[in-house]
Amino acid sequence: QVTLRESGPALVKPTQTLTLTCTFSGFSLSTSGMCVSWIRQPPGKALEWLARIDWDDDKYYSTSLKTRLTISKDTSKNQVVLTMTNMDPVDTATYYCARIRVGGDYTPVAFDIWGQGTMVTVSS
Amino acid sequence: AIQLTQSPSSLSASVGDRVTITCRASQGISSALAWYQQKPGKAPKLLIYDASSLESGVPSRFSGSGSGTDFTLTISSLQPEDFATYYCQQFNSYSYTFGQGTKLEIK
Known about the structure:
The complex is a heterodimer.
Chain A: E1 3-7, E2 11-12, E3 18-25, E4 35-41, E5 48-54, E6 59-61, E7 69-74, E8 79-84, E9 93-102, E10 108-114, E11 118-122
Parallel strand pairs in A: 2-11
Antiparallel strand pairs in A: 1-3, 3-8, 4-5, 4-9, 5-6, 7-8, 9-10, 9-11
Chain B: E1 4-7, E2 10-13, E3 19-25, E4 33-38, E5 45-49, E6 53-54, E7 62-67, E8 70-75, E9 85-90, E10 102-106
Parallel strand pairs in B: 2-10
Antiparallel strand pairs in B: 1-3, 3-8, 4-5, 4-9, 5-6, 7-8, 9-10
């Protein structure tokens, strides 16, 4: 059974750096074709994709946020970490990690398994 | 970035109704589109991938169609548990974008 769980601070101050951890089970990020993404959702608003990391350590970022984001993995711990710098109140959101399902040619086709999400509030 | 526009933004319907939600991409994305269902306080759930492939375990009343720029999600006969918000999402190019959502409410 595949599961993912997000963890991190519930409250951060403006200008601080946010660090979130996604701990997963049921698959390994050292297996070819495995990928994990981060997605966020401000209260009452739509979903926004943030970043992706692949089994081969390739990394991809949202065009609008790439200067603030860093994604990394610790395969031995089955964890993916997202850092976001210079936090602002507009970054208040529920942050999800999700596994990416890929097709036969390793083309992504869906976020098939999601964590429950972790709510982060940015306020002084 | 590719924009996805869903219509309608909200919809009132009754149990047993047939409902269609549309998603239009700002440029062609082949069939690289997925649909998700989200209930309040919960993570999204995958319904459809590759525009028309039904995710395992999802009821057959859900179906998806389309390619290029125009896509639809159809629920053939609404059940009480289907009242939720639905999102389309594209994988054709980075950044992976989502539509703004369609809230399906009970009439």
